[in-house]
Amino acid sequence: MLKKDFLWGGAVAANQCEGAYLEGGKGLSIMDIVTAGDKNHPRRFTLNLESDAYYPNHEAIDFYHHYKEDIAMFAEMGFRCFRTSIAWSRIFPNGDEEEPNEEGLAFYDRLFDELKRYHIEPIITISHYEMPLHLVKAYGGWRNRKLIDFYVKYAKTLFQRYRGKVRYWMTFNEINSTIHVPAIAGVIISEKEDKKQVSYQALHHQFIASALAVKAAHDIDSDNKVGCMVMTTVGYPKTSHPLDVEAAQQYLRDGTLFFCDVQVRGAYPSYFHSYGIDIQMEENDTQILKEGCVDYIGFSYYSSNVVAHHMEGELCDGNIVKGLKNPYLEASAWGWQIDPDGLKYLMRTLYERYEKPLFIVENGLGYADEISEDGKIHDDYRIAYLRSHIQAMKEVVEHEHIDLLGYTAWGCIDIVSAGTGEMKKRYGMIYVDRDDAGNGTNQRKKKDSFAWYQKVISSNGEDLT
């Protein structure tokens, strides 16, 4: 059985739900200049707002004005925790100000107070694919070491202001995305530059910032628990060919474990030398990493892939990364291969390697939900996905005594897709009346999965029917 204080809940990100992109003294963030798109037409970073472009994050689902209504629905579902992020540009609109924006701080005070009313624990990501746009334009984003000081000042501001209100933090969302999509870290790389070198240098600055934030959080409040957050996927070898097995091993190591190694163990692993990257470090960096190890491992898991030493064949989409098609698995409408057994494999791997508490902070199914003739949203496909993954999670916890803090289903309420900018790619148990062009009433409506998840939580995962 799962422990009695297991943290059941849901997860969103500020930039995908809040809207109100210039209200309350907020400055422009890097996600405020990303256009809409779809699975066939990628989103664009425009650097400057274009009058003829649509930016779905500007209004999103207007959580900024609807948070009381939404939290009441989360409480009705039985949430014990709610994972969201803080918009950096609400607190420091440009990122380099001397003093924070009081209106922004006060908004999150109200949000956390509302969660407390319902005994819902906030799980807060400090930077979730979002940073002030000014830090990109004036400093070059995370390629510039000056960003460390700006981030640490921001983080300390949060730890001091919300002491006693927030205990669980994560420093960067899916920190490994910096390597795959550097623009998410505010790093724009020209064609003449070495993308790998620049992105890993930016990543190093994030590692240092994260470690300093962990130490500051512990110094300010010993009750704080700070985790990393890593995007994960499993890569199975295509065949029993030794080189395919080696490719799968490297896929997991280079795509997931490396990012945990640095943040959990507090040092670059010896195999990093094989990457052929020359990281510019300062004298105290190794000590900073050593003193800033995280307390737990937060991670996202949606799907798995197949890899080979020659990546030939049909490629499938996934959470930022692609892989070969697995003939033994079904895929979602967006091509993500559904694999609850991969979650078990991943949990075993992480816990055996690090023996640190785990936290599944993203897991869910994106689908183009539709309102039926009876006025309801029958999302049995989502229930089936969540059921299979929760069952897998339970099995590995019960059989192998893995310390798992909680489970937060991604996009518990429909939000703007980070990858495509669509609204029709819905993950939530709560439907929001808004379409890809920004039309709609923003009215909230329960899906069938709402009552199902309510039952799961009330039974502490025992009733998955």
From TrEMBL:
GO terms for cellular component: cytosol. It is an enzyme of class 3 (hydrolase). Transmembrane segments: none annotated. Keywords: Glycosidase, Hydrolase. The active site is at E362 (nucleophile). GO terms for biological process: carbohydrate catabolic process. Pfam families: Glyco_hydro_1 (PF00232). The keyword Hydrolase applies. The keyword Repressor does not apply. InterPro entries: GH, GH_1_N_CS, Glyco_hydro_1, Glyco_hydro_1_AS. Signal peptide: none annotated. Gene3D superfamilies: Glycosidases. SUPFAM superfamilies: (Trans)glycosidases. GO terms for molecular function: 6-phospho-beta-glucosidase activity. Its EC number is 3.2.1.86. Belongs to the glycosyl hydrolase 1 family. PANTHER family: 6-PHOSPHO-BETA-GLUCOSIDASE ASCB-RELATED, GLYCOSYL HYDROLASE. NCBIfam families: PRK09589.1, PRK09593.1, PRK09852.1. This is 6-phospho-beta-glucosidase. It comes from [Eubacterium] hominis.
